[in-house]
Specification:
This protein is of the alpha/beta class. The chain is built from 16 helices and 18 strands. The strands form four sheets. Strands 10-13-14-9-8-15-16 form a seven-stranded mixed sheet, with helices on both faces. Strands 5-4-3-6-7-17 form a six-stranded mixed sheet, sandwiched between helices. Strands 1-2-18 form a three-stranded antiparallel sheet. β8, α9 and β9 form a beta-alpha-beta unit.
């Protein structure tokens, strides 16, 4: 596999050159990005970019995260292409005005809403799905008729360099720019008056982004993370349950924002569940995952050390082997960590799965609800009543019953967090809405103009007004 080795650079937007956003603002002001035709052209060009460069994208993802080809297709390349196809198919409908009913007092007349683009958007991505996390917001921004600056994560260096190289070759360079870099470059970008800030990453930087957006009174979407719980009920199909948990947890070596962060199970089922879980890990990744090309690597040594430190003093029932030089950590299962341990306080974001036990279902729900609201919450159960209780009682960005990350495959399901896991949503129509302003329009007719609302007022007019 040839390596994408473009060095870290500010591709076509030096941070010292603040005028580049002016160029995008000028492009937006021409109105050209509003046309259906332009949006379709840019989306089609983006699709071509992905299709013609899929090998290079797979290669860059492998360099950054040891990501295998299947996972790259599933969660980055194929995922983005499917999203573009869905946008192209529905864009005309989304752009149409939506009729709103007109009350008696404003008749004759008609009311509707129309979606208008916000302007120039800033899209800041994270490193774990480094391609998809900037491309899918970009799809939504284009569909809604915006210009955009894209800032991929500096930690996934090869993918960032590739995006910076490809975007100007395919998209309208007067409307789209890629900026590479880390804190310094992002800080310079945040100081500029974007019309929309769209950020994916951790909550600390999320606060910085929100404060920057506040300076310009611009809308902000924060796609953050957190600890996503996974409850396993005794009444479940255990074979399928463990298969789906292993798939969702150890995909991308656990570095998935919606991966099950920890398992909650009733004490009585712990032994059987753990045994079946371990057997399934071996089945999917073999006895030595370090030799398995389907198993990824941790993004860098700093994150790998962070994860290894979480294991200190924990009861590891499977895995734990690591190789810091090669950024490798085995799929690892820990039982009964203390609720105060780093493992249970921080988002794990790696291949460690703690299992906590409880005496009953209400205790599990209570435990989830005493923590920050998660990005995703999972329950495996065949018990309809418990399923209903879970949906009703657990507040989370998304809930998936009897599966894990797969809910993201439905682009029509709005995706985003709640509370500390984020604000705002995207994917499909919700992405189009996120990058649009819903403009209300009322049109009155000159045909009839009731005197009732005009002075001089009278008791009779007041009585009529109250009636209407
Ligand atoms: P990261 O280190 O890549 O940072 C995210 C972005 O913030 C990068 O582009 C980076 O350059 C920028 N950044 C970093 N420090 C900055 C600063 N001081 N000022 C301005 N910008 C700065 O990613 P991360 O924060 O490690 O991301 C991991 C988190 O993201 C996890 O919590 C994960 O759950 C979450 N995440 C959420 C989603 C989602 O869709 N909700 C997806 C992926 C990851």
């Amino acid at each position: 596999m040839s390596e994408v080795s473009t060095p870290f650079h500010q591709a076509n937007f030096p941070s010292s050159n603040a005028t580049n956003i002016d160029e995008l603002k000028r492009t937006f002001a021409t109105g050209q990005t509003k046309s259906y035709q332009w949006r379709v052209e840019q989306l089609t060009a983006l699709k071509l970019l992905i299709e013609e460069n899929s090998k290079a994208i797979i290669c860059a993802l492998h360099t950054d995260l040891g990501k295998c080809e299947t996972e790259s297709w599933l969660a980055e390349i194929g995922y983005s292409v499917t999203d573009i196809k869905g946008n192209l198919k529905r864009l005309k409908t989304w752009m149409k005005p939506t009729k709103i009913s007109t009350p008696m007092i404003t008749q004759p007349g008609k009311c509707y809403t129309i979606s208008e683009p916000l302007g120039v958007a800033l899209i800041i991505g994270a490193w774990n799905y480094p391609f998809q996390l900037v491309i899918t917001p970009l799809i939504a921004a284009i569909a809604a008729g915006n210009c955009a600056v894209i800032k991929p994560s500096e930690l996934s260096e090869a993918t960032s360099a590739l995006i910076a190289k490809m975007v100007p070759k395919y998209l309208d360079t007067a409307a789209f720019k890629v900026v590479e870099g880390g804190k310094e470059e992002t800080t310079a970008l945040l100081a500029q008056p974007f019309d929309k800030y769209f950020y994916t990453g951790g909550d600390q930087v999320g606060r910085i982004v929100m404060a920057a957006a506040a300076q310009h009174l611009s809308p902000v979407t924060l796609e953050l993370g957190g600890k996503s719980p996974c409850v396993v009920d005794g009444d479940t199909n255990l074979d399928v349950t463990v298969r789906r948990i292993v798939w969702g947890k150890w995909m991308n070596a656990g570095q998935t924002c919606v991966a099950p962060d920890y398992i909650l199970i009733e004490e009585a089922y712990l032994a059987e569940f753990s045994q079946r879980l371990i057997a399934e890990i071996k089945k999917q990744y073999g006895k030595d995952p370090s030799q398995n090309k389907d198993y990824g690597r941790i993004i860098n040594q700093r994150h790998c050390s962070r994860l290894i430190n979480y294991l200190e003093g924990e009861n590891i029932i499977y895995g734990g082997k690591h190789d810091l030089d090669n950024k490798f950590l085995e799929p690892t299962v820990v039982v009964q960590p203390s609720a105060n341990s780093a493992l249970m306080k921080e988002e794990i974001f790696g291949p460690i799965l703690p299992i906590m036990t409880f005496n009953n279902k209400q205790q599990m729900l209570h435990f989830i609800n005493t923590k920050s609201k998660p990005l995703a919450a999972y329950v495996f159960t065949s018990n309809a009543q418990f399923e209903a209780e879970f949906i009703e009682q657990v507040s989370a960005g998304s809930i998936c019953i009897n599966d894990t990350n797969i809910f993201l495959a439905n682009h029509d399901l709005p995706f985003g967090g709640v509370g500390t896991s984020g604000m705002g949503q995207y994917h499909g129509k919700s992405g189009f809405d996120t990058f649009s302003h819903t403009k209300s329009v009322m049109k009155r007719s000159f045909k009839f103009d009731a005197a009732i609302r005009y002075a001089p007022f009278s008791q009779f007019k007041l009585m009529l007004l109250k009636k209407f």
